[in-house]
């Protein structure tokens, strides 16, 4: 979309106890890379990691003044959470509600992408970088 910043996000969890990681890639409307992030978030399930990845991406976009954001992730439950708080893990709800207040100040859309199409964000998991 013209004038839009697109972010592909991913979250994962490995081992026992589960260690969560998040990653994401920001691109402009020409598909040029604007930056990315990858972090270990400590104990987390896969779903919690997916939420943390999207919340981090939203916070970073708002911080950078990007007002037209397309969020794309491979978790359908994550996409549903933009429509209903009941899809949000209970211990992340307050953080999610605060994040939704920030994102409402900009134009955004959230869509689902199959895991096979989300390889850029997936590849960042485990690299531990932040732009």
Structure description:
The structure is a single chain. The longest helix has 18 residues, at 46-63. Strand 2 (19-27) and strand 3 (33-43) form a beta hairpin. The model has no long low-confidence stretch (mean pLDDT 85). The protein has helices spanning 46-63, 76-81, 93-103, 119-124; strands at 5-14, 19-27, 33-43, 68-73, 107-112. It has a single domain (5-124), classed as Ribonuclease H-like superfamily/Ribonuclease H (Nucleotidyltransferase, domain 5, 2-Layer Sandwich). Helix 1 (46-63) packs parallel to helix 3. The chain is of the alpha/beta class and 131 residues long. A 5-stranded mixed beta sheet has the order 3-2-1-4-5.
């Amino acid at each position: 979309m013209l004038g839009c910043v697109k972010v592909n996000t991913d979250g994962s969890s490995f081992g026992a106890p589960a260690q969560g990681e998040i990653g994401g890639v920001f691109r402009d409307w020409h598909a040029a890379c604007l930056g990315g992030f990858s972090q270990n978030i400590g104990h987390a399930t896969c779903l919690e990691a997916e939420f943390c990845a999207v919340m981090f991406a939203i916070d970073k976009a708002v911080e950078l003044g990007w007002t037209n954001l397309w969020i794309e992730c491979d978790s359908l439950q994550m996409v549903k959470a933009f429509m209903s708080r009941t899809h949000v893990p209970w211990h992340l709800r307050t953080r999610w509600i605060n994040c939704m207040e920030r994102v409402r100040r900009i134009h955004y859309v959230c869509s689902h992408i199959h895991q096979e199409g989300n390889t850029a964000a997936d590849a960042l998991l485990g690299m531990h970088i932040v732009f």
